[in-house]
Amino acid sequence: MGMTIAEKILAAHAGKARVTPGELITAKVDLVLGNDITAPVAIKEFERLGVETVFDRDKIALVPDHFVPNKDIKAAEQAKLVREFARQHQITHYFEVGQMGIEHCLLPEQGLVAPGELIIGADSHTCTYGALGAFATGVGSTDMAAAMATGELWFKVPESMKFIFHGEAKPWVGGKDLILHIIGDIGVDGATYMAMEFAGEGIEALSMDGRFTMCNMAIEAGGKAGIIAPDAKTLDYVKDRVNREYEIYESDQDAEYALVKEYDLADIEPLVAFPHKPENTRPISQVGDVPIDQAVIGSCTNGRMEDLRLAAKILEGRKVDPRVRLIVIPGTQAIYLQAMEEGLIKTFIEAGGVVSTPTCGPCLGGYMGILAAGERCVSTTNRNFVGRMGHPQSEVYLANPAVAAASAIAGRLASPAEILG
Amino acid sequence: MRGKAWKFRDDVNTDEIIPARYLNTSDPKELARHCMEDIDPQFMEKMSPGDIIVAGKNFGCGSSREHAPVAIKAAGVSCVIAESFARIFYRNAVNIGLPIMEAKEGAQRIREGDMIRVEPEEGKIINETTGEEYQVAPFPPFMQAIIAQGGLINYVRARVQESR
Ligand code: SF4
Questions:
Q1: Average pLDDT of chain A to the nearest whole number
Q2: Domains recognised in chain A with CATH numbers
């Protein structure tokens, strides 16, 4: 019996020839990630361990991004704790304001993730890095503390599910729509415990940015990891970023899956996930008349270069509806700079939007765009739970960046095709 | 581990295990007082230390709060057997040293009140009342060690000190 890519990566890191789903293993991790919310808790646990040093100062990434630049005194204290820990232990990959970005945009960009690696992060969207053919999963702060001390952690080998996309994507359909389509199909607990493997020509055609978006939202189906086998695009992406050895894995032909789903891209149009679950998806042609107050373009789901280019294409030479606040947040400093060089920032500002320094900000209802009672936001983020972006009576509609931009112009949920005429 | 089985349905969430209104403390004893309160208010009066929770699918779904397995452990429950666990609950349970076993057949066949014995090293669940035996994946040694030490932090601390 063959193995899936997820099983192969776990086996290699556990020093075993093979692993089977359900098996509990201890495996060495290549990178341990924490942010300004989870790292402080992990640091306190770490201090209870009685170790003097971290296992490897090059293999820990600390990214204050949720409430940084500090939103209030509490946030400032948290950030300070992380900063002091980073200094004390001389953590190589600590990202201060000025270098930092949203963690899941930043780590791949900085070459901290390579194919075949095993990565844990005290953040549920750590699964994003599966786009590079790594096994990456979210864990708790206790796990992070233990891994910072020892460089290893226990894992339960997940079963795998395979999602195959056939055919060619329709205009304005991207990674966001593909993953929303899956979540709409299998539900928010449809992949609990599972590694979700994405394949088929529809995935091959996706850019790396689109693949990050897909793997990012594996957790929204309950998945432990999202994963895409590396191809030429992957290697091209890591070529100038990663300068260490790495291993390429792919699933065997006879690997076993708990479920295999095949989709035809001809059936998929841009989707919007209605409140308050990512599984409540509707095709953009069937959303009806939903006026909006705010549009957010950013986050670890859709705050990358391709996302900003798509949004700018729609916003270029147009004006945001006067009732709508458009907030654009590039995922990292490098993306910000590139967007500036390409003139995208100018486009956003001329259209009537604001552009922020990289931060999670509104995505988790932190700051920089909190909603009042009764307000609606179309957002390129990943969660539309009750109160996620502010007041419990506010609503978040999840969509791709082109739909969010088109909706900002129309003042209601709208398709890019409608705006471009 | 040996105790009486208390049965619960599918999808028991962390709010039912320990309601959010009690989260202003992280004292295990305080939390234990309210263990399972919103799904079975009498649970703490009925159960005796060593008893076993037997539940359906997706036990511990909902928030990632570590307080939930802490409350169960401090209540004196010796083991939780379920058809399946929510992923983060599973991790948290092991990390705080609460023995849990995923046993589909066992979870379905055990009835409330049955006397259950669990042998985690062998991966065996024995229903002394009916004489049935259910086989599950045994705990690997490191996981037995984590649970014996009372959780991941203690386990790592002990190992670190050993290696000095
Ligand atoms: S952008 Fe949102 S989902 Fe992503 S890491 Fe930040 S808070 Fe989490």
A1: 96
A2: 5-263 (3.30.499.10), 272-420 (3.30.499.10)
